[in-house]
Amino acid sequence: MTTSYQPIQQYQHLIGQNGVQPTSAQMALQAIDVFIMKQIAACYPQPPTIIDLAANHTNGASTILWLANAAIDHIFVLANHDNTNNTAQWQKQFHHALSLMELETAHLSLINEALPNGRERIENEMNPLTPVFFILAATDAAQFESQVKLITGLWDEALILFLPLGASGQSLVLEAALRFCRQNDAYQFSAIREWSPFWSSSQLGIIHHQSQTDVTDVLKRIQQLYIGNDDFLSLLRMKAEYQIQEHPEKLLQHENMLLGASQQVFAINDESTDSVPEPLISGRLIQQALRRMIPVEKQPSLKTSNQFVIRSIRNAYHFMIPTPIRILLRNIRVKLIGM
Amino acid sequence: MNTQVLKGVRILIIIPGTVSYFYDEEGRRVAEALRNLGGCVDVETLRSYTPQPYDWCFLMNLSEIEFSMQSKAKTLQHVRHIKSFATRVAMILLESVEMKWFFQSLQLLQEADIDILLDLGFHNQYERATPETRKVYHFIFNGLTKSEREAAYQMFTPLEERPLPWTFVGHLTKERMRFLNKLTENLSRDGFLYLVHFTPVTETGPHLNQEQFFTVLTRTQYKIWCSHHPFFYIESIRFRMALLAGTVPMKVNLDPHRAFDQSLPFSYLIHHEDDFHDAINQLDFEETRQKFATEFLEYPSLEASLLDGLNRLG
Amino acid sequence: MLNKNRLNHTPNHTLRNMPTGVSIVIPNWNHEYLLPRSIQSALMGAKQLQQHDIPADVLVIDDHSRDGSLTLLRQLEALYFDDGLRLIALPENVGVVAVRNLALECASYRYILFMDADNELIPENIYMFVRAIQDTEAAMVYGNLIRRGPVAAYVDMFNNESFQNHIFQRNYIDTFSLYDRHQIFDVRGYQSIPMMQSHEDWELILHLAASGRKMVFVPVLMGIYYDLPSSFVNPTRSAEFEFERKSYIDRVFNQLGIRFHQEPNTYHLRYHPDVGYI
After folding, report:
1. What is the reported pLDDT for A269?
2. Could you say which of B149, B280, C219, C225 has the lowest number of CB atoms within 10 Å?
3. Is C216 part of the contact surface with chain B (CB cutoff 8 Å)?
4. Distance between CA atoms of A77 and A91, rounded to whole angstroms?
């Protein structure tokens, strides 16, 4: 993500110095989406041709994304002058920034047209053997839907990458994408955020022809980069187990705190309400008992097996006996022996 | 108090004169107190004293004096020489009577054939002392001198001017390291921490001198320390330094048996390592500092303690 | 942009002035299970600085790990990118010296805090170190490190004294410190010298001292250093080699024992931002 996004940050910094602020863009590109788009292009069987329809909306950042990505064949930027102040500004700074960033531009074609007008020039210049990726800024749902229909009418096997997707249940763009695919069952829709929990913040959506099986393969491949041996729950469990092993007194404190809170439930009038005594059986007591039984000089050598035994007993006790029963046992002990 | 009660009494105080400032400073304090009682006091080292008649000679820690002389033989030679012109000779210590350094000094005392040991401190250690020690032992309460009493509140700056939540300074020992672990886990980790490896105190060494330490304390809320030995002992020097710097002292007791006499001075500022953090969290800084100062000022002054001691010794 | 050709070279050009801020750099080589701890503490440190209006990020440079670190790092980067976590994954193993020099080139901000992947930063104190380095204009500031060993009972402290002469005999100042990138870059960064292999940080410290730069001890806890079994690969050296190394150090940094007579600028510098020089 870092190295993928760095050129965009650099570009935004450069044009920002000349008055084109990142916040003036209609759409911001997120690092996760930049990375995934770049990876899709890099993993595709052939370097794709990119048709960037999002340049005006991103102040040119979407174009930089691809220019900094060596794994494409050609990029066509359809950025018609719409006579807005913003468009004129970023386009003025664009080339200057490119030269400062020393990016290769031989495979860049800037077309001052919108679809379908620019199609002829694109078809004349592009390599027809390359797959075609369209990049759309879906800032307006109706416009997005008509663009998708237009694109799929012109290039039926194009891959359409669009953002932002918006939140489920609230996004008209999402509804438009789903509607299009329902009405045109040759097409499939994917929301990138559904592919991995680590992509949950992604706003990228993909519409592609069902014959484009490469897309699914590539996404699975990228998804695999984020699948490790440990999910966060298992890491959390390991950390908790380590803490129990190394800091049993803290676990005891925590148990005491819980038991102290539960005392109110049982409403026991205990003189020692300020300091909650140890549970009836706890790993700590077992440890202390073992220490008393085993001579001091032998304890270090037995420490490892000692810890394993104690841990096992403690875990078994906690696992087998439910908390309310443990509380009851503790309270009985308090009543019987006062500690 | 009669400020001329020792008028005409000539007193020599021998300080180590090394960069380890504790005993030099205590020597000067004792000198100030005795002068406030009218005594005529000279403060010298074993290299600088002038042989002349003295009624009393106080040796500030024979072990430290020996270290500064770099020769036991020379030290004892000088001490015997002093005995030839000083009517009474005593050694002053501020140590736990169970420490090995105490016994080193005691042995020197015995070899020098001196039979008076003045323990300057906050609590009488007679009960903890060995039978040999008891033969020579006399307790003197290490109260404040007149100038210290006058300066007691001078550095009582408000909490906002004390950005250091705590200060922990000393030699790095296994016990202090264990305590430091608890300090950082249970209290906070953002205090002033300066524990250096055990090296002799020299000008070029890493130790903080008195002035540097005092400067740090004037910006500190709680001065935390623990002894570098396992024996219970209240370091009067540290409490006094805390008062004069306007910080609240907190002594941490590492004694595994935990118990100590709660009637001892400032017992509410002495806590075991397992619960000191609870104690600090429950304290109000300004209130505690005021209480500490008030109590300290109520105790006998050093002048009164010394006079009482000298009277007991006849 | 990252220039991979420079990876194995020491910095040989001038670094343009970087904006004030802190990059916490964690070189990683096969420390998968320890990364969450170090990264979490670093992210918390970055957050603390941001609360004081000091920009900060956390840059992990993975030196071609083979233990699954990269997968975990990708996951963490995706989750914490907006919190300032950045990852550079190197396509080949280049060694820690090259990684640190790369960090000097690529980091976003003027100050760099180097920490190892198996260490832990004390986040609430990092602001004090930043204040210290700004106030003193030092090349490097460092603080106390608690060292925890493989068993709970082992705990020690180091990095706990100012620069003194005995550093020529034995290094006691760890890399886990805060650096002024401009100054380190200007003295050409870390050097990979066979005689100082595995002690390049010591070499840099001596080089900085000999170059008149300041290294200031701040009496505050900086981090926790975990001494784990086989934490890093450090070949044992013969007594002969150690003697040769000592001779090398004396020859290069303390010829004729001059440092004992003419103390360097950095000698005995101790500073706390709330107290001043001590």
Report:
1. 39
2. B149
3. no
4. 11
Q: Which CATH architecture has domain B10-143+300-313?
A: 3-Layer(aba) Sandwich (3.40)
Q: What's the whole-number mean pLDDT along residues B266-277?
A: 89
Q: For residue A116, say if its preceding peptide bond is cis, omega within 30 degrees of 0.
A: yes
Mean pLDDT of chain C: 88
Residues of the domain holding A256: 232-337
Asked if the C21-277 domain carries CATH number 1.10.8.80, the reply is no
C74 touches chain A (CB under 8 A): yes
Total number of domains in chain A: 2
Which chain B residue has the Cα nearest residue C128? B190
Residue intervals of chain B classified under CATH 3.40.50 are 10-143+300-313, 151-298
Contact (Cβ atoms closer than 8 angstroms) between residue B212 and residue B203: no
Q: Could you tell me which CATH number the domain at B151-298 has?
A: 3.40.50
Q: What is the DSSP string of B43-93?
A: EE-TTT-----EEEEEEE-HHHHHHHHT-HHHHHHHHHHHHHHEEEEEEEE
- Please check whether residue B115 touches C, CB under 8 A: no
Rounded to 5 degrees, φ, ψ at C247 are: -65, -40
Q: Residue B25 above 60 pLDDT?
A: yes
Q: Determine, for residues C221 and B164 on separate chains, whether the beta-carbon distance falls below 8 Å.
A: no
| Beta partners for residue C112, in sequence order | C23, C179
Closest CA to A93 of A30, A25, A45: A25
Of A199, A224, A249, the position where a domain reaches its end is A224
Instruction: Report CB contact under 8 Å: C75, A198.
Output: yes
| pLDDT higher than 90, residue A283 | no
Boundary (domain end) residue, out of A224, A251, A277: A224
Whether the CB-CB separation of B169 and C160 falls below 8 Å is answered with no
* Residues C128, B189: C-beta atoms closer than 8 Å: no
Average pLDDT over residues A24-37: 93
Q: How many CB atoms neighbour CB B287 within 10 A?
A: 10
CA distances for A244 relative to A153, A195, A249, angstroms: 63, 35, 8
Contacts 24+ apart (CB under 8 A), A122-129: A122/A51, A122/A76, A125/A74, A125/A76, A126/A49, A126/A73, A126/A74, A126/A76, A127/A49, A127/A73, A127/A74, A129/A46
**Pairwise CA distance, residues A137 & A156, whole Å:** 19
What is the residue type of A189?
Answer: F
ipTM of the predicted structure? Answer: 0.91
User: What's residue B314's pLDDT?
Assistant: 80
Which chains touch C (3+ CB pairs under 8 A)? A, B
Tell me the H-state helices in chain C: 35-51, 69-80, 96-106, 126-136, 181-186, 200-210, 239-253
Tokens of A219: 């996404």
Q: What is the rounded CA–CA span in Å between residue B48 and residue B43?
A: 9
C2/A31 CB distance under 8 A: no
Residue A110: beta bridge partners? A77
Q: Are strands C140-148 and C215-226 parallel, antiparallel or unpaired?
A: parallel
For CA atoms A80, A82, A86, A92, the dihedral sign is positive
Predicted local distance difference test score (pLDDT) of residue A23: 82
pLDDT digits (tens, 9 = 90+) for C77-135: 999 999 999 999 999 999 999 999 999 999 999 999 999 999 999 999 999 999 999 99
Structure-token match 């990264």, residue found: C39
Q: Which residues pair with B223 in a beta bridge?
A: B167, B249
Q: Are B225 and B170 in contact (CB under 8 A)?
A: yes
What is the arrangement of strands in the sheet containing B40-44, beginning at the earlier edge strand? Answer: B40-44, B10-14, B54-60, B86-93, B117-121, B137-141
